[in-house]
Amino acid sequence: MSKDALYYLEKIMRFGSKNGVLSFVNLESEKNNQSAKYLKNDAEFFKDTTSFERLKYLNVGVINDHGIQSQYMKDFADKIKAYYKQKKEVKRELKDLQRDKEFWTKSSQHEVVVRVGWDINHKEVCFEIGNEQNHTLICDHSGSGKSNFLHVLIQNLAFYYAPNEAQLFLLDYKEGVEFNAYVADTALEHARLVSVASSISYGITFLKWLCDEMEKRADRFKQFNVKDLSDYRKHDEMPRLIVVVDEFQVLFSDNKSTKAVEGHLNTLLKGP
Q1: 252 and 127, same structural domain?
Q2: Which residues pair with residue 194 across a beta bridge?
Q3: 67 marked as part of a ligand binding site
Q4: What is the dihedral of CA 234, 236, 237, 240, to 10 degrees?
Q5: Where are the beta strands (DSSP E) in the chain?
C-alpha cells in the first residue's frame, strides 16, 4: 500500500466513525508502525475467526474493488452526485419567506436584514447590510439567478420594513426588463425612484444627488452631535436609502463618463 493510501486510511480510521463511515481492515503487517498505531488506537481488533460471528447480524454485502474504473465505483459516484444534487435543489416560494405577523414591523436603525432564500440544508439565508457592511456587489454568470435574487430582496425588504424605515432607488440598465413591475398601477410604496430606461448620464446625475444627500445627512448628524444614522435615530426619524442597480457595469461602458462615475462612487464608498 502506498504512503498516500496509508495516509487516507489513517484519516478514515480516526475520523470516519464520527461521520458515519465505518471500515473493516485486514492488517497483515505492522511494519508501518505509525499506521498500526492509529489502527490500534481507533479500531476494535478481531483477534480470531470466532470474533467475526458478531458480523452476522449486519446487513452487509461483500464487493470486490476492481479499481476506480469499475462499474461499481461509477454507480456509487453517480448515486453520490444525485443525492447532493437533490439536496442542493430547494424549491420554495417567495411567500414561504414572509411572516404575516411581521409585516412592516422591522426597524432599520442599526441594519437591514432580509430573508432571501435557503441553503442546501434548507436553513433560511438572510441578506444583511447597514451595520459593518454597507455595499454589496453581486456577480455570477448569465442565468445564475442574479436578477431573481434582486426581486426577492426588493419584495421582502418592502414586506418587512415600512416606507419610513427604508426607501428604494431602482436603476435598471437591462433595457427596462427587470424593474418594470415596480412602476405598474400598484406602485411600490418604498420606491422614490424607479428608472427602467436608464442612461449613463442619468445614472451620473443620480449618483451626484446621492452624494449631496449624504453630505446633508452628515451635516444633520453634526447638529445632533452623533456619528451615524443609528445614533441619529435616537433623536429623530430617518429612513435608510437603499440603491439597487441592475447591470451596474453599464455605467462604466462610456469612456468619457468613467471618471465621473468613479468619482461619485468613491465618495459614496468612503462615506462622509
Answers
A1: yes
A2: 170
A3: no
A4: -60
A5: 112-118, 124-129, 166-172, 191-195, 240-246
CATH of the domain at 228: 3.40.50.300
Residues 51 and 119 in one domain: no
Q: Is 141 a known ligand-binding residue?
A: yes
Q: How far apart are CA 269 and CA 265, in angstroms?
A: 6
Q: Which amino acid is at 114?
A: V
Whether residue 84 is found in the same domain as residue 113: no
Residue linked to cell 461509477: 74
Domain boundary among 60, 88, 116: 88
Q: Is 203 annotated as a binding residue?
A: no
User: Does the annotation place 145 within a ligand binding site?
Assistant: yes
Which domain covers residue 58, as residue numbers?
3-88
Q: Is 42 annotated as a binding residue?
A: no
In the numeric block, which cell numbers belong to residue 163? 416606507
146 labeled part of a ligand binding site? yes
Q: Are residues 148 and 41 in the same domain?
A: no
Neighbour tally for 225: CB within 10 Å:
9
Same domain, 40 and 138: no
Tens of pLDDT, residue by residue, the chain (272 residues): 677 777 777 778 777 777 777 777 666 655 555 666 666 666 666 665 555 566 666 666 666 655 556 677 788 788 888 877 777 677 778 888 999 999 999 999 999 999 999 887 788 999 999 877 788 999 888 888 888 899 999 999 999 999 999 999 999 888 767 888 888 766 789 999 998 877 899 999 999 999 999 999 999 999 999 999 999 999 999 999 999 999 888 899 888 889 999 999 999 888 76
Cβ atoms 145, 133 nearer than 8 A = no
Domain boundary among 45, 64, 88: 88
Q: Is 236 annotated as a binding residue?
A: no
Location of C-alpha cell 409585516: 103
Tell me, what amino acid is at 43?
A: A
Calculate the CA 137 to chain-centre distance. 12
